[in-house]
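Fold this: D-sedoheptulose-7-phosphate isomerase
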Amino acid sequence: MTTSDPAALEAVRARFEEAQTVLEKFMAEEDNLTFVAKLAIEIDAVIRRGGKIISFGNGGSMCDAMHFAEELTGRFRHNRTALPAVAVSDPSHLSCVANDFGYEYVFSRFVEGLGKPGDAVIGLSTSGNSPNVLRAFEAARRMGIRSFALTGKDGGACREAADEYIVVPSDRSERIQEIHIKILHTAIDLAEESLLQSPLL
């Protein structure tokens, strides 16, 4: 394969077109756009009432959860005060809980330890069936913490476990994750704009 090989260029084009098709299908459903607006409103509300956002996921979804949290504690588009968010990604916590209790508890133990009513949790699972994400949603519900699930495929068990959920219309994990980060970026952007109008900042 070379960069001048028509087959190679067509293969690249096909993958971008596939990503475009998933995005177009996602945008065609108004409920999906409503979910993103709800998420932005909740981020805004949590911060205004002195709460924090806890995000989590596995593998690439953990990277997205970390990416999301650092854009709140750091910055997105604007210089402003740091906003309270944390991704469950500390290796010492993950290895301790996985070793002592099992990997399915790595996120729920964090929520139990640091979460409180008034916070919000955001869990990412491309299948919607990750046991550790589901347990974290269960812990959040017991504690009165509002939860949002970002999923794909058919949404899996997250449809029942979380207070709000969204299903990206794809069976391919990489396409689902691409939409997940667009959802998170848009929610941060809208929440940041709202918060910039407040004396809080």
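The radius of gyration is 18 Å. Residues 29-195 form a domain with the Rossmann fold fold (CATH 3.40.50.10490).
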